[in-house]
């Protein structure tokens, strides 16, 4: 329940920024995106799996939202008649999307077992050698501790 309350506050703050200071909205949205990304990074181990989970989840959530909006008869109907139904259905779909995102490597391998396995192996090497350090720097650049010059672990 605490997470839902926190998410509602963040959403309300973003809405307030959008209404009061539209020019500041992109920067505020980026900070929220980075904060959520850091949470996923720490929770999922901070590697290729965490990135795959996050990207898969974002893709599935956007697809779900767009599918719901496109299925509505009109904008007015969407907001007046389906908003409660959408919230309930979206919560259930978010749970389904989370479970599906946990299994993102299986989705890749199921496309083609041999090529999917090779792709995952190559991505692991590429991620570790070329992508992990720049990604960590970008995610944690605003939280670098001046004494140790390393990202703080207490997010």
How does this structure look, described?
Helix 6 (104-111) runs antiparallel to helix 7 (113-140). This protein is 80% helix and 0% strand. The radius of gyration is 19 Å and the shape is globular. 7% of the residues are buried. It has helices at residues 2-20, 25-43, 48-71, 75-80, 83-102, 104-111, 113-140. The model is unreliable at 145-150 (pLDDT under 50). With 155 residues, it is mainly alpha-helical.
Task: Please give a quick description of this structure.
The chain is mainly alpha-helical. Helix content is 80%, strand content 0%. It starts with a helix and ends in a 15-residue tail after the last helix.
Order of helices and strands: HHHHHHH
Largest sheet: none
Uncertain regions: pLDDT < 50 for 5+ in a row? 145-150
Strand content of the residues, in percent? under 5%
- As for the number of domains, it is 2
- Overall mean confidence score, pLDDT: 80
Helix content: over 70%
CA distance, first residue to last residue: 19 Å
Number of strands: 0
Total of helices: 7
